[in-house]
Amino acid sequence: MEAFFTGRKFTRGHQRLADYISKHMDGIPFMVEEDLAQACQVSISTVSRFWGEIGCRNLKDFKQRVKDEVLLSPSRKLQSAFDKVGGGDGAGANVLATADYLRQSADRLEQAAFDAAVALLGDAATVHVYGPGSAESLTALVDFRLTRFGFSVRRLARGGHELFDQLIHVREGDAIVVFGFVSESPEMAVLLDFAKERGCRTLLITDLVVSDMLAKADVQLYAARGQLWEFHSMVAAVAVIETLIVAVGKQREEQALHNGEELHRLRRQYQKWLPKNV
């Protein structure tokens, strides 16, 4: 579905439709234009013109075109990955295929947004990181890297009421990093709203180009993960994070280098007791 909306300049009414459709795709097959008009508080004629803006003839044509692209089960996404592996191009070619995600992410990486993200993290008293599902691996990477530089980092619970137990420790001047892929979850909505209330800034790392989250977060960085019907790759997200963290570390260069030397000293002093295995 992202391909329908990417790079398009919508009117205010069409922006509402794009945002709504991106977050309620499961219900679109059962809706008519009147339903969409009511849900987005726009006229039926606005809905009718919208399909042409995204290259479709009408709502029926849109439904048909996204049927095999969006409403796919995880098994179908896995099948797309299996098909690539079995395509005969070899493992090396499949690895290089992910380079396109890096290119897409680099093309969308605005220097001003990147600099703002560096400043947001560098100025934070504590960095709170949220990433559900496969994005949990990204929260672990942020935690590991920034902690080594001397940052205070806390990983937030993935969902449910456990999140509230951790939010009480968020203070004004902290930063919240949200990995928001696919759609805005209730937890993400809570985090972005709570951050405004508490007086802390938010960094959203996402693969979405149309979402209400983009306006709610203070800074947004894009990381391509593949089309919605594909097995999603974290290659670009990791590259964005690593680039960001190196830039943040340079802001605290003296402390980061000192911590690196201290780490080296400890490893040498206790290597007989705790040999490095990896």
TrEMBL record:
Pfam families: HTH_6 (PF01418), SIS (PF01380). Keywords: DNA-binding, Transcription, Transcription regulation. Residues 117-254 form the SIS domain. CDD domains: SIS_RpiR. This is SIS domain-containing protein. Gene3D superfamilies: Glucose-6-phosphate isomerase like protein, domain 1, Winged helix-like DNA-binding domain superfamily/Winged helix DNA-binding domain. Transmembrane segments: none annotated. Residues 1-73 form the HTH rpiR-type domain.
